[in-house]
Write a structure and sequence with these properties.
This protein is an alpha/beta fold and 290 residues long. It has helices at residues 15-25, 43-52, 111-119, 133-139, 165-173, 192-211, 213-222, 230-240, 243-246, 250-265, 283-289, and strands at residues 5-11, 34-40, 57-61, 72-74, 80-82, 88-92, 102-105, 124-127, 144-147, 159-164, 179-187. The strands form 2 sheets. Strands 1, 2, 3, 4, 5 and 11 form a 6-stranded mixed β-sheet that branches. A 5-stranded mixed β-sheet has the order 8-7-9-6-10.
Length: 290
């Protein structure tokens, strides 16, 4: 009997991550030597577990990556970028925020938190599960909150957008380029051939999901794996699980480098890094087996 290497994959429970992984879960993609198990966790927990090196392959906030670069390599696939859109800073309608307003964010190492903390250095931050942020603002527990994932599409009529994180990003980047939000990383302790195969399988999963979006979306809705209705799911997947999610191109990698540069300049990282240097070297297999 063949021995397979089991790869533990962690992703968030939001629609785009589930959508991009489910082709693996449903067995639509095969691997000669790998099998996969999956765990769904909120983004703050995913980032915390990545710092511990818990999972073989894991979804992360891109802003976390420079802090785990020695333990994890970047995958090119299953990525989410905002392009003219992204997380939203919301508050109660008609309320003026003070300089030191209290705000709920979804995690210390999220990309939106990095940009928010630079833009609002005097804000008093509390961290919450992303599903609890809207209600915390509505109840008055906090003055404002940054909504992420599907929450950006539909939130309480008592709230209004104070500022788009996209606008903050463009201000710091000094140009309109895609906003890096989330991606995938793979543990460096995996044999290189295993890491390459892992990236191949996950890339194919995103490719298949994108090519069969209506069919897979219907399957996810039938299984009650999605928190939004059919129309909102379609809108959300068009934003964050699309052709650009299959594999990062040079535009995406350069945007990622801009995020790392901004974080470094503001003291969030000990050194500046180039994303190109931390990708899985896919050419290894071509050289080895040619």
């Amino acid at each position: 009997m063949k021995n397979y290497k089991l790869i533990s994959v962690a992703h968030s429970p939001d629609a785009d991550d589930i959508f991009m992984y489910m082709a693996v879960k449903f067995g639509w993609i095969s691997s000669v030597n790998l099998r996969f198990s999956n765990t769904a966790l909120d983004i703050q927990t995913l980032n915390e577990e990545a710092l511990k090196g818990t999972y073989d392959a894991t979804a992360i906030s891109f802003a976390l990556y420079p802090l785990i670069k020695d333990e994890y390599a970047l995958l090119r696939t299953a990525v989410s970028f905002g392009n003219g859109y992204g997380p939203k800073l919301v508050k109660k309608k008609g309320v003026s925020l003070k300089r030191n307003f209290k705000v709920a964010l979804s995690g210390a190492h999220t990309s939106n938190a990095l940009l928010f903390r630079i833009a609002y250095p005097n804000a008093r931050i509390v961290y919450k599960n992303f599903l609890e942020i809207e209600s915390a603002v509505v109840s008055g527990e906090v003055d404002a909150g940054v909504l992420i994932h599907e929450s950006i599409l539909d939130f309480s009529s008592e709230l209004e957008v104070e500022r788009e994180i996209w606008d903050i990003w463009c201000e710091f980047a000094k140009e309109e380029i895609p906003l890096p939000l989330g991606g995938m990383a793979v543990r460096r302790s995996l044999p290189l051939t295993g890491a390459i195969e892992c990236e191949r399988v996950l890339t194919e999963a995103v490719r298949i999901a994108t090519a069969h979006k209506p069919f897979l979306s219907h399957m996810l809705m039938e299984r009650n794996l999605i928190r939004v209705d059919k129309e909102k799911l379609k809108t959300y997947l068009n934003l964050y699980a699309n052709e650009s999610s299959v594999s990062m191109d040079e535009v995406a990698l350069n945007s990622l480098n801009k995020l790392f540069e901004i974080g470094y300049k503001h003291g969030f990282y000990p050194q500046i890094i180039d994303a190109h240097d931390y990708l899985i070297p896919k050419e290894y297999n071509e050289a080895r087996f040619s």
